[in-house]
Amino acid sequence: MSPSSPPPVVTASSSSASAPAIGPDFHEGIARTDLLLIADPRSKLLLAVACNVLVLGRGPALVLTVAAALSALLLADALRDRRAVWFTLVLSLCLGAYSALPHVWTSSTGIGVAITGMWFGRFLTSMGMAAWLVTTTSSGEFLAGLRALRTPGFVVLPVAVVLRFIPTIIRELHAIIDAMRLRGAVPSAGSILLHPAITAEHVLVPLLAMTTRMSDELSAAALIRGLDRSGPRTSIIRLGFHPGDALVIALAIALVALHFSGLEAPWIRG
After folding, report:
1. pLDDT higher than 70, residue 28
2. Do 240 and 148 contact (CB within 8 A), yes or no?
3. Cβ 81 vs Cβ 134: under 8 Å
4. How far, in Å, CA of 108 to CA of 114, rounded?
């Protein structure tokens, strides 16, 4: 370009063509639209809490069976991959052992295996409901729902940090494993048990270094966003009642009613 030539003029069309397009995942608060059951985060939180309280407490085993089936269906809608299939198979195996073994294996060993399957089924059901809640609800939606419920700030702030910290740790761990694969040092279950020092050197040391850096960045981001500020706050997340909320609330009420009804399946021995 000669010194006498005028500078290039940037038009609106050229600048828009060179700018990166903003996709649907630009903001972390945008909800997923590929779900069959779309509901408000407050309704989903109600169902998850009710299911966990009923499943982990004392009550009819029929409630556990219904809650387990509901957890498997909701998680299948959220994940839609083989993880949901494996979850359903393991959960069915645990509950099947609980309901069938006392009828065919009446010894103390059989009863012990049945009780173990029962408790594993309870914990898996609780974990499945928690995974459905976290998978189908973005961090922005969850925080907006907590603020709409007038949750105290000392509860909202740790939840906000955890919801952003754990996914970041998982992504960094996958990045470390991919880097090890490129270098030909892929960790396996056997190598972790046989060579824990090498595993700590290749995985834990860089993960701890990244964790320290990410904790500083998350703390700075929290202060910039004013998460420590008291008083009313605004949010770009729009909460509201959807048709799916009626179904979610009805499921929670049905589980509570089934718990207090005392009904029990004839094939389940208490």
Report:
1. no
2. no
3. no
4. 10
**How far is 270 from 268, CA to CA, in rounded Å?**
6
pLDDT above 50: residue 11: no
* CA distances to 35, 40, 72, 182, 195 from 80, in Å: 10, 21, 11, 29, 36
Residues 207, 210, 212, 218: is their CA dihedral positive or negative?
Answer: negative
pLDDT value of position 210: 83
Q: How much is the pLDDT for 33?
A: 62
Residue type, 19: A
For range 71-86, the mean pLDDT: 90
Conformation bin of residue 48: beta by default, left when phi > 0, alpha when psi is -120 to 50: alpha
DSSP state of 192: H
- Residues 128 and 74 sit within 8 Å (Cβ to Cβ): yes
Neighbours of 104 (CB within 10 A): 7
User: CA nearest 28: which of 129, 128, 132, 142?
Assistant: 142
CA distances 107 to 28, 95, 110, 266, Å, are 53, 18, 5, 21
> What distance lies between CA 12 and its chain's CA centroid?
42
| Residue of 214, 211, 227, 73 whose CA lies nearest to 143 | 227
